[in-house]
Amino acid sequence: MEINTELIEALNQIEKEKGIEKEIIFEAIEASLVTACKKNFNAAQNFRVTIDRETGEMKVFSQKTVVEEVNDELMEITVDDAREVSTHYAIGDVCEIAIAPKDFGRIAAQTARQVVIQKFREAERSMVLTEFQGKERKIVTGTVQRRDRKNFIISVGKHELILEPSEQVPGEEYRNHQRIRVLVLEVKDAPKGPIVRASRTHPDFVRRLFELEVPEVNDKTVEIKAASREAGSRSKVAVYAPNPDVDAIGACVGEGGQRISAVVDELRGEKVDIILWDEDPRFFIASALSPSDVLAVAVSPNERSARIVVPDDQLSLAIGKEGQNARLAAKLTGYKIDIRSESQAKAAEFVSEADYEDFAYYDEYDDGEYAEVEYEN
Question: Which of 12, 67, 75, 229 lies deepest, with the highest CB count within 10 Å?
Fold first, then answer.
């Protein structure tokens, strides 16, 4: 009995293209055929199946224990009968007798195909997991393959990523065959196969873009400490250089704004504020509220909350349109933020005089620059 030669050719092709060793598939087919023999012919009998790796010829053997007296004809054989098969058999050995079960060819072909399909799926699953689990929260470049309801399918190499509606930037259009960068958001091993979710809205997408465009960020000379984002509208990125001689903001902006321009272009015009991170949460919060000036900050570290005072004419600037600036600053710093104008704060004794004095000193020391840079394409 022989497996269809097309199947042998298919195994060779799978081994070449998918990297699945042909021997593993042969062994799996043999094991599955043993199960099929038990199911279709006799569950109480032992079988062994072999496949010639070159010709595809199959042989089925019934395995029986050599005994002096037979009590179970399906499982045992006398030593005399065993020696008719081979003179080397002795009591206690397992004698293998070649058999030709009826209709075995059809069952074998069906079983072999099922095994190949299963191994193919397992290999695909393994390849996807191996390739993308190490790329979670990293940027990959792919091609928009098609639209599936509200999802977009992004082709990366031989694999597909899903860009769900929640991960699509409002206002962005995605066309078939368009080259696109996405963040590998999550890799899940689902029953029907691995699912790789992509994103263009996650704050880490902005982080990774700076790593690609700014060598100092990539080599950790400049660190991105935090990022907050309302995709399609505005992002805030907090940067820091351990070496005081390195200009963290300047490195991210680049000569003539070249580096930040590349990031903004990929974000399709989204505004980006680059903030100087400070280990003192008061100064970090003040910087995060740029472009507004800040007169005083009082923090409650245990409650992760802050009270901020800004000039009367900059309250709306600090809060931002529909509260966006304050909201992004809160996400960036991890503090709940309550902002009051100077006149409101003094009337309600919102902060102490010491809070004003601390910031007056900081303002004098830092020459009034709270390290904000906004680049608009």
Answer: 229
